[in-house]
Amino acid sequence: MLQKKLLGSKILITSTLLLGGCNFFPEPASLIQSPQQNLASGQSTKSLYQNVKNFIPTGSSLTVPNDPVSSNSIIQADFNDDGENEAVTFYKSNVTANKVGAVVLHKEEQQWSPLVNFSGNGYEISWGSATDIDGDGIPELLIGWKMGVSAGNVLDIYKWSDNHFVKITQLNYHELELIESQAQFRLAIWKREFDDVYKVDVVKWNQGTFVSDKTLYPSYFLKVSDYFQQRAKAVPDAAHYWYYLADSLVKAKQPESALHAINKGMTLSTVVPPFNQYDELKKTIEAQIESRGNQDVQYYVPYADLTINIPKQLAPMISIEDQEGVSNEYIVNVYITDQKKKGLLFSIEIHSKDFTSREELPFPIILETEHLMYMIRLSSENPFIEDQDNLLYKTFNQASNVMNDISASIRLGAPFPKYVNTEDTLLINQITEAYRQITHVNIGGELKSETLETFTYQQKEYRFLGEDINTHEKLIDYLSSSFTTDAIQDYIDTAGIIEHNKRLAQPNADGGSLLTYPKASVIQARDLGSEKQYDLRVPLANSLSFEVIHISFRKTEAGWRISSSPLSL
C-alpha cells in the first residue's frame, strides 16, 4: 500500500470533486462480493506447520510475506487442478543473510513431498498469493521479492503446466495492488519515477502477456489523481506534481479538472518533465474536452455511490463535497465556485431508515433503496446576490434554470466499470472476524444455560465465561487467530477478566455497538515494514454515517495479527 498521509481520527471527512481533482475512496465492502481467489486459505493446522518445516532448507525458519496483510507463511491452493491443495511455504535463512524462498509441497496418500524450491534474489518476500491471473479457473502462484527501497520489487508469476511450474512472466514494481473487476483479476502497478512520483498502470492478462486495461482507468486513476492532488496541495510550487495530477485526471476522464492542473503547472518552474511535455499533455486534454461536444460532465461521488450530470458549460465552476450531517444523515453538497468563493447550489441528503422515517423528511424522495432515502434541498437564494455583475452570480442563475435536468440525472452507481481492491476486502474480512470474536467474548462465550453464573468479588459482580473460553489457554487460543499475544493480554487486563475457582470471569455488564464492520472501507494506510496501520470508515448500522477506527497490524511468525487493543474495535 502507498504510504499516504493519515487523515487522523476525524469523524467528518470531506471529498471534493472540482477543477483541482477529486478524492476517491474504495467502495464499501458491503457492495461487493468477496474475491474468488486464494490469498492464504486452506485448513492450516499445527500439524501442517510442523510437517512443512521438515522441507525448508536447514537453518531456515518460516516467514510471512509483507503483502497481502491476510497472508500467512503457508498458502494452500490447487495449482494443478487435481482436486488436492498444494502447500506453498515461505522461508528465510537464519544462516545466510538476505536469503528467502518458497517451497511448494504436494500431498499424496496423506504424505507431503516437495515439488519445487523457488529462491529469489530479494531479501524479503514482498508478496505471496495464489491468484487466477489468466482467468482459466486455476490459480497461479505470485511471489514478490523485495530488492531494495530504490530498486523496488520483482514479481514472479508461475503457472502449473506439463507437470511442473513455469514462470509465465516477471514484473518490476514499487507498489502493487491486486484488484478485481467483472470477475477478472488485474494488477495495479506503481513504479517510482523519482522521489514520491510514480508511473502507474492497470494491467490484465491477455493472450499470454499483460496489457493495459483502459476500461478501468476512469475508476482507478481517480485514486491516482487523489494521490497527486495530496502531493500538489502539500507542495503547490512543485510543477511536476501538477503535471502528474493532470495526467492522472486525463486517464480518469476528468479533462476539465486536468486542464486546471496542467495550466497551474505551466505557470511554475518546470524541470522534470521538460516543458514541451506539459504542452503536449495540454493539447491532449483540450482534444479530450473538444471530443465531448456538448455532452454533460458526469461526476461520481464514491462513498455515496451517486452520479450527477452537470452541463458542460457549468462544469468548470462546479465543486462537489460530501460529508456527514448532524443527525446521522449523509450530505452531498454541490457548489458554484471560482475556487476563491463558493456558494451552495443544492444538497442531496441521504437518510437511513434505521434513524429517520419517511414522514420526517421535509422534501420529496428522489431515490430510495432498501435502507436509504435520498432527497434534494435547494438553496433558498443566490448566495452571490451582493454582486450581480459577478460571473458567480450569473453562473448560479444559469445553473438554477437547469436544476430540473440536473436533478433528473442523479442516479445510483458509477458511470464506468468499478473495481474491488482485493487486499482491502480481505483486510475487512479479517477485521470483521476479529470483531465477531471479541463480541463473542464480550457476551460471555458459549453458555450452557440462559441463567448466568455470577459472583461478587471486591464489591463488583462478575459472571463466568462460557466453557469454550473459560481458561486462559482457551481464551488466548480463541483470539490468537486475529490478535497478537500482547493485544490479547491487554484486553484481558483492560476488560477486567479474572480467574476465580480455576475459571475465567468478566464483569457482569451489557454492551453493544452499531458499527457495521462488513460494510467498512479503508480510507488510509501506512506501511511501516513489520507494522501496518489502517484508518477504516465504519458505517453505523445501515446508514452512511460512520466512525473512523484506527487499527494496527503486526507481522508475527503465524501471520499478520491485529496489535491494537481489541477494545478499540
UniProtKB/TrEMBL annotation:
InterPro entries: Endopep_inhib (IPR031841), Integrin_alpha_N (IPR028994), TA_system-associated_sf (IPR053749). It comes from the Bacteria. Transmembrane segments: none annotated. This is Lipoprotein.
